[in-house]
Amino acid sequence: MYKLDPATLLCPACQTPSLVRHGAYRRSLTWGCETFVITVYRVKCCHCGRTHAILPDFIAPYRHYALPDIEEAVSRVLDRTIPVEKASKYCDVSTVKRWVYAFKVKVNTVIGLLNSMAIRLYDRAARLIATGSSLNHWQQFLAALSLLGSSAASSEMGLANIYVTSDQTIVFL
Ligand SMILES: [Zn+2]
User: Fold this and answer.
1) Is the domain of 149 the same as that of 72?
2) Which of 19, 79, 107, 153 satisfies CB 3.0 to 4.6 Å to 158 for a cystine?
3) What's the predicted TM-score (pTM) here?
4) Could you tell me the distance, in angstroms and rounded to a whole number, from the CA of residue 17 to the centre of ligand 1?
5) How far is CA 64 from the centre of its chain?
């Protein structure tokens, strides 16, 4: 089992390696047709005083459903133009509509953050700008994410959250 050492992490707020364990809480998570109770650990920054939850990449803050389920429904609606009524096997239509709306509200900011990171790290912005205009929201998101390369994650949205929350703590999918 992988053991996470808070001392090896940077505080997302002030970027200092000053995190210490700060308790835990239990929360439920629905993934597919099953609901689990998981433990989420918290850390506190000794430098700025902020606290942070250490979420696995398959959980988005304040979401009851696992991110791979959300991603499947959102991508089916936005990329494959499947009606919201048929986008998810597990959730009702109003929940899927909320997911799609939330993605549309946040995606341009997330694309901007991913693009900014790609410019700073790899000078890769030109590729996104050249191809972005003819793509739908989902394809633009994937194009921006691809600028930073691939990595092991539970979903594309989970990977994006890893990238953007390593840079700031305000936006996530
Ligand atoms: Zn801090």
Assistant:
1) yes
2) 153
3) 0.85
4) 8
5) 14
- Do 75 and 147 belong to one domain? yes
Give me the count of residues in the chain: 173
Residues 154 and 96 both lie in one domain: yes
Q: Collect residues with CB below 5 Å from ion ligand 1.
A: 11, 13-14, 45, 47-48
Q: Please indicate, yes or no, whether residues 14 and 93 belong to a single structural domain of this protein.
A: no
Distances (CA, A) of 4 to 1, 43, 122: 10, 11, 28
Ligand 1 mean position, distance from CA 164 (Å): 16
CA of 29 to the centre of ligand 1 (A): 28
**pLDDT tens, per residue, the chain with 173 residues:** 556 777 778 888 888 899 999 999 999 999 999 999 999 999 999 999 999 998 899 998 889 999 999 999 999 999 999 999 999 988 899 999 999 999 999 999 999 898 888 888 887 665 555 555 678 889 989 988 988 887 788 899 999 998 888 776 678 88
Instruction: Centre a 10 Å sphere on the Cβ of residue 86 and count the other Cβ atoms it contains.
Output: 12
Distance from Cα 96 to the centre of ligand 1, integer Å: 35
Q: Which residues form the domain of 40? A: 1-54
Distance 10 CA to ligand 1 centre (A): 8
